[in-house]
Amino acid sequence: MTVSSPETVSTHVAGSWIDGAPVVTAGGVHQVVNPANGSTVAEMALATPADVDRAVASARAALRGWATATPVDRAGVLAKLAELVDTNAEAIIAEEVSQTGKPVRLATEFDVPGSIDNISFFSGAARHLEGKATAEYSGDHTSSIRREAVGVVATITPWNYPLQMAVWKVLPALAAGCSVVIKPAELTPLTTLTLARLATEAGLPDGAFNVVTGAGGDVGTALAGHPDVDVVTFTGSTPVGRKVMAAAAVHGHRTQLELGGKAPFVVFDDADLDAAIQGAVAGALINTGQDCTAATRAIVARDLYDDFVAGVAEVMGKVVVGDPQDPDTDLGPLISMAHRDKVAGMVERAPGQGGRVVTGGVAPDLPGSFYRPTLIADVDEASEIYRDEIFGPVLTVRSFTDDDDALRQANDTAFGLAASAWTRDVYRAQRASREINAGCVWINDHIPIISEMPHGGVGASGFGKDMSDYSLEEYLTIKHVMSDITGVADKEWHRTIFTKR
Ligand code: NAP
């Protein structure tokens, strides 16, 4: 796989990486399209279910060697991978921007450095597995804990942050000693393939990191329901995540699901209004709102409501929508025309359900799947735009009467991925962080993530963690080893079974 410049078609058709090498599969040719202008970025062969079998067999064959490599050896390979991603950052940024349409500034300052830091983190984590102390808990035995790689990991990732989502799944698995087969979203496979190629270059054994590209309905289904994997991890929408879980359950395989979100953004009446306005726009529009933790439901104290709505509309009006390659662009296109139609449809239906479009609500006159930053005030709690995931540059606003009402509204959702509370009152901040049901609650900010801390949701947002030491738990089993230290044949506990021999 070579990196194409943003506007040229790659001549390479190897859409899979199996057993440490590019593979031209027989599932038909797929065009990766730049959503900013509809141009073809790359053409590649899609995998078939038979290729999934091959990739899983390759991962199975590589497992023992990688799982029994010393922690320092695993860490060394992962550290080298971080170095290679850094060295190749410019090309990776170009790939990520061209396949997703995300602004080059975002890819340069967030996606790629964040991925490098995450890879480095897991390089270190490979040497820091923890467990209970070895001891004679029974008096007659020494008990110790072994933490072992769970085995072959099947993982499926979405299109919104293709590189980061691949890193979040693959790196903790490799650090734990697992081997991996990943299926990236069909729309955005390029940087995952590059990551696998660089991992091989870094010294990862062939077969430890395989990529199969193709649509969810065939390649994804074949991978999620494969009998010879040991755990299935997934990032994507809630309905698809539940299908993946059902497919894995047929074989009793472990799952980890990072699903959709509908993050509340609660502004109490003592908040710094300017900070809340700026934070709301940034939190709602990051990655064109295609972020599972994006601020989507602003819930604002009655006294601040009108000023908040006016301030957000003003800042949204200044956001630069346009060519993702231009460093001055703030907002790129949505991932596809089909997705833009979905977002536009939800916005168009909102007024009929009580919402007031304050700004945006239209597509700019640009080629590509662009959509203007949109603010919808006075939304009804029962409305679709308030309840369902939009995954676009759209913020809804409602007011609240008192703190109980604010927290009730924040929790009035099936999702529970992320939330924020804006206040200068330490007691309110503590209460909000305790009472909001979400995997992450920010206080006076919304969006920042950090490799040392976990990411993952509750409720319809799934379960399990990405990032941090906690994510290693998804890829490890705990084995208790209990050794008799008495050397006595006639053990006391045998009397529960028989008294005389
Ligand atoms: P999606 O439609 O659920 O797809 C996610 C992945 O699943 C893609 O690779 C897709 O393949 C594959 N897939 C589709 N149907 C499948 C099936 N029946 N069996 C197995 N795999 C299948 O999600 P998306 O539209 O790509 O991404 C947006 C969603 O991801 C949003 O809901 C967002 O909130 C969520 N997300 C969550 C997090 C988190 O950490 N919680 C992070 C990022 C995104 P194809 O697309 O190639 O068909």
UniProtKB/TrEMBL annotation:
Gene3D superfamilies: Aldehyde Dehydrogenase, Chain A, domain 1 (3.40.605.10), Aldehyde Dehydrogenase, Chain A, domain 2 (3.40.309.10). One of its GO terms (molecular function) is succinate-semialdehyde dehydrogenase (NADP+) activity. Keywords: Oxidoreductase. It catalyses: succinate semialdehyde + NADP(+) + H2O = succinate + NADPH + 2 H(+). Its EC number is 1.2.1.79. The active site is at 258. The keyword Oxidoreductase applies. Residues 30-481 form the Aldehyde dehydrogenase domain. It comes from the Bacteria. Belongs to the aldehyde dehydrogenase family. PANTHER family: ALDEHYDE DEHYDROGENASE-RELATED. This is Putative succinate-semialdehyde dehydrogenase [NADP(+)] 2. It comes from Mycobacterium gallinarum.
